[in-house]
From TrEMBL:
PROSITE patterns: DNA_PHOTOLYASES_1_1, DNA_PHOTOLYASES_1_2, PHR_CRY_ALPHA_BETA. This is Deoxyribodipyrimidine photo-lyase. Keywords: Chromophore, FAD, Flavoprotein. Its cofactor is FAD; (6R)-5,10-methylene-5,6,7,8-tetrahydrofolate. Residues 1-131 form the Photolyase/cryptochrome alpha/beta domain. Belongs to the DNA photolyase family. The keyword Flavoprotein applies. It comes from Rurimicrobium arvi. InterPro entries: Crypto/Photolyase_FAD-like_sf, Crypto/Photolyase_N_sf, Cryptochr/Photolyase_FAD-bd, Cryptochrome/DNA_photolyase_1, DNA_photolyase_1_CS_C, DNA_photolyase_N, Rossmann-like_a/b/a_fold.
Length: 432
């Protein structure tokens, strides 16, 4: 009999909780990855960099495992179909996976756990993608935090070497099942196309970390770690990264706490997936102009930082955090377009798309989330340029026609838009 180790957003062969426990179970371990058709069928753009990234990473894991005489079994289907099939094909005694905290993932895992239990198979799951799970950082009265600062204080206070210890999976590789799977399905077979994305293995951010606090807000500078997609798919271990950050830079470490804060919010308040965290803002009368949304999406608003950001996103699948805040504020406040439109657009495009971080940050920008900036704080996009891209280096890269006649006039005048937004927000609060 075998133990299956089911890889999901933990695509690496080092410091891996589920793999460690599987390898130490005394059973030969069969590594499994499923290209999940439930998720893939929802992706409209069939040239999706994230699918391309996963495809390249899984191919790499197969190669690594083959040098050890083992392999990664790569399946294509719904997890339920795949497991029902595998349970017939192999004598499976146990399944090991790492926990995931998104509502849809929890439901998926419960389904598979139930199938296993019904068949007399052990289903084990472990903490792996976070330092602290949503239930581990709670207020004294046992309720979840809804404000980041006290959450992060407790998060930092609890951090000790125990939580950062790596799982030494390499020592137990001899327990991997010796087998050879068929060829990796091609992107075409999965219904996707190749993109311009080439996967590079992550590195600890030695270069940026020393100056992170000073440079992270300037999009023209190499000031951030670019590790978000790796954290999303688990190609880097959060324990390894947090241990490094703890030694080097507290500001960076606190960013990792933001990630877990929003995961905790989504876990404890799953309604935020569809609704504002603060109910009072449910009644905002959005203008929701399709034409203006289109101009925003394409980077044609006449506000250079907004346009640069959206063009960067459309071209590369990423955008600097400072610029994300500016474009999100602009869409929701200046154009009075529902934050959920922006959230959905980012979800389609971002390499590092993560439901909890995207939702939490969009709600923050719209002023309706937990721990939100007060609604009356409206970013002035031109002031943001002066502060964070004073030489226009970032902007000129993405908006080369900035000084020419072909560049559009501002889609809306700043102070007019600001007053209009404040009025709409105030009205919603008064009418609640
Ligand atoms: P670094 O500055 O190097 O930070 C290190 C890590 O800390 C990041 O990789 C990320 O895991 C975490 N982190 C940093 N800032 C935040 C934050 N505000 N919220 C949560 N985690 C954070 N981040 C995502 O990972 N996925 C998203 O879908 C996402 N959507 C966003 C939408 C909006 C409107 C905004 C304003 C921010 C969003 N962010 C999202 C947060 C942030 O912009 C990115 O995490 C960051 O830009 C990624 O680049 P980096 O890895 O170089 O970050």
């Amino acid at each position: 009999s075998v133990a299956i180790c089911w890889f999901r957003r933990d695509l690496r062969l080092n410091d891996h909780a589920a793999l460690y426990h599987a390898l130490r179970s005394g059973l030969p371990v069969l590594p499994l990855f499923i290209f999940d058709t439930t998720i893939l069928s929802r992706l409209e753009d069939k040239a999706d960099r994230r699918v391309d990234m996963i495809h390249q990473v899984v191919g790499g894991l197969q190669e690594q495992l083959r040098t050890l005489g083992s392999d990664m079994l790569v399946a294509h289907g719904t997890p339920e179909e795949v497991f029902r099939h595998l349970l017939q094909e192999y004598n499976v005694a146990a399944v090991y996976a790492n926990r995931d905290y998104e509502p849809a993932a929890i439901e998926r895992d419960n389904t598979i756990a139930a199938i296993c239990t019904a068949a007399g198979i052990e289903y084990h799951n472990s903490k792996d993608q976070v330092i602290f799970e949503p239930q581990e950082i709670l207020k004294d009265d046992g309720t979840p935090y809804t404000v980041y600062t006290p959450y992060s204080k407790r998060w930092l206070a609890r951090l000790n070497p125990f939580f950062l210890k790596a799982y030494p999976v390499e020592q137990y590789f001899s327990a991997l099942l010796q087998f050879r799977d068929k060829q990796l399905p091609s992107l075409q077979q999965l219904g996707f196309r190749k993109t311009d994305f080439t996967y590079k293995a992550p590195e600890l951010p030695h270069q940026v970390i020393a100056r992170y606090g000073e440079t992270r807000d300037f999009p023209a500078v190499e000031g951030t770690s670019h590790l978000a997609p790796h954290l999303r798919f688990g190609t880097i271990s959060i324990r390894q990264l947090a241990a490094f950050a703890q030694k080097k830079n507290l500001v960076y470490l606190k960013e990792l706490a933001w990630r877990e804060f929003f995961m905790s919010i989504l876990f404890h308040f799953p309604r935020v997936e569809q609704h504002p965290f603060k109910q009072a803002y449910a009644g905002i009368k959005w203008r929701n102009s399709e034409a203006e949304f289109d101009a925003w999406r394409k980077g044609q608003t006449g506000y250079p930082m907004v346009d640069a950001g959206m063009r960067e996103l459309n071209t590369t699948g990423t955008m600097h955090n400072r610029v994300r805040m500016v474009v999100a504020s602009f869409l929701t406040k200046h154009l009075l377009i529902n934050w959920q439109w922006g959230e959905a657009y980012f979800a389609k495009k971002l390499m590092d798309f993560d439901l909890s971080a995207n939702n939490g940050n969009w709600q923050w920008a719209a002023g309706c989330g937990c721990d939100s900036a007060p609604y009356f704080r409206v970013f002035n996009p031109s002031e943001q340029v002066k502060k964070f891209d004073p030489d226009l280096k970032y902007i000129r890269k993405w908006v080369p026609e900035l000084d020419s006649l072909s560049y559009p006039q501002p889609i809306v005048e700043h102070s007019f838009a600001r007053d209009r937004a404040l009025k709409a927000y105030k009205e919603a609060l008064n009418n609640q």
